[in-house]
Structures are given as structure tokens and as C-alpha cells.
Amino acid sequence: MLPDRVGALNRDDNWWVVKWHDPEQWRHGASAYRFALHYDRRGRPDGCVSFRVKNKWEESGSAAEVIIDEIDANNAAARAALWRFVLDLDLVRTFSVDSAPDEPLRYLVSDLRSVKADVQDGTYARLVDVPRALAARRYLSELDVIIRVEDALLSGNTGSIRLEGGTDGAEVTRSRRRPDLIMDVRELSAIYLGGTPLQALARAGLVTERTKGAVAAAAAAFGWSQPPFCPDFF
To answer: How many CA atoms lie within 13 A of 48 on its CB side?
Structure first.
């Protein structure tokens, strides 16, 4: 699950100790953490949800809220089953989750307008070693492009590089050839995790296309099958 999510952090044993530290004064009237696992047909866990229940009563009856801390699964059926479990909890009026990636819940319910979502700032990236960073990731499609990068803070990043990448990895070398694209390190950092469309940056005048079709080709390669998301604050 998380290992396949672009932008997620590694979670070691110390992280889990801190994550589930749950003193009562931090709960704001809600219950302690509760957990549920989903198992596949072979009895292996393939999804999980952690949540709290905050009980409240009004004249009309229960106004309890389920506060979902995290829900994730490695397939659509497991994710839908976990949401079904949470939404079937008795005497609950509202359900909330503070942060979520490309959550498909609105497409699972009969009335998609019943799911309200607010856009929040999430993960930020700033490349400090451009060649190494570009060589470290995979690309959604084959790409051979020369990018001129400008970096006013880290002069070692400034210059033209040739990026030859694909689904198996990439090779990055310095180049003196005419660049296909020119952009600041800020824009390169923005598209690095695959969540910001390169075409939008180009339309805003933040990326210069010197070779026709370079923006479209790079945009397709830098994209990914799911948007970046980091569930852990840092």
C-alpha cells in the first residue's frame, strides 16, 4: 500500500511507536483508536482502517461521529469493503477523515454530493541534486529530453541535462546540446512527484518549450498512475 504511494515516507518501528501513542487528553472526547483489517481469499491482510468514535447525543437522537485516521488497501475491492464497514457502524451521523489521497468514496456512494471534500496543501518537494533525483525515479512512458534547469540558490543544479527514462528507470547526463525545455528548479520540483501537470505550468509561462511536442512528451512521462500523497506530517 504505502510503498506504492508516491510521496509516502518510510515507517520504521520507532515511527509506529509514536504513531499509536494515544493519551486520553489528545482524543478531545473521542474513543481510543480502533482498527479493522480486511483479508483476501487466502487469509492475507490486504487493507486496514484506523478510526475513533466520538459519541454525542442531541434531541433528535445520536449525533455520533466516526473520525477516520487512515484507510488504505492494495486493491479496490478491499478499500470498498473497509468503507462499507465504517459506514455501517450503528448510530453514527457523520464520518470524517482529515487527509486522504485520491479518495474514490464519492464514486462508491449512491449520491456523490453527500461526500464533501476540501482541498488542502499537502506534500512539497525541492530538488537539491537534480541529476540524482531524476535518475532515482521511474517514468510512465519512454522519454528522451534535454532540460535546461535554472537554480538561483544551488548553482550546481543550473545547466542542461539529458534525461533518458522509462518504466524501468532513468539515466541522466550533462549536455551541451540545445535544450528542449527550459524551467526553474521550482517547476521541475513541482512535477517531480507527478502531482502537478507540466502543461499547466507551460500555459502559465513558467516553462519554455524549445522543441515542439516536448511539453506533451515530458508531461506524459512525469505523470503517474496515482497522485502523490504523504499521510504523515513532517
So the answer is: 10
What DSSP character marks residue 3?
G
Question: What's the length of the chain?
Answer: 234
Burial 144-161 (b: 16+ CB within 10 A, else e): ebbbbbebeeeeebebbb
For residues 190 and 183, the answer to whether their CB atoms sit within 8 Å is: no
**Prediction pTM value:** 0.79
In this structure, which topology does domain 130-222 adopt according to CATH? Answer: Nonspecific Lipid-transfer Protein; Chain A (3.30.1050)
Indicate the fold that domain 25-114 takes in CATH.
Aminopeptidase (3.40.630)
- CB within 8 A of 63, min separation 6: which ones? 56, 57, 93, 94
For residue 125, what are the contacts with CB-CB under 8 A and spacing of at least 6? 7, 189, 190, 192, 193
- The total of other beta-carbon atoms located within 10 Å of residue 72's CB is 20
Cα–Cα distance, 168 to 162 (Å, whole number): 17
For 15-43, write each residue's pLDDT tens digit: 999 999 999 999 999 999 999 999 999 99
Q: Where are the domains of the chain?
A: 25-114, 130-222
Given a cut of 90, whether residue 185 has pLDDT beyond it is yes
Cell numbers at residue 138, please?
521511474
Residue 24 DSSP symbol: G
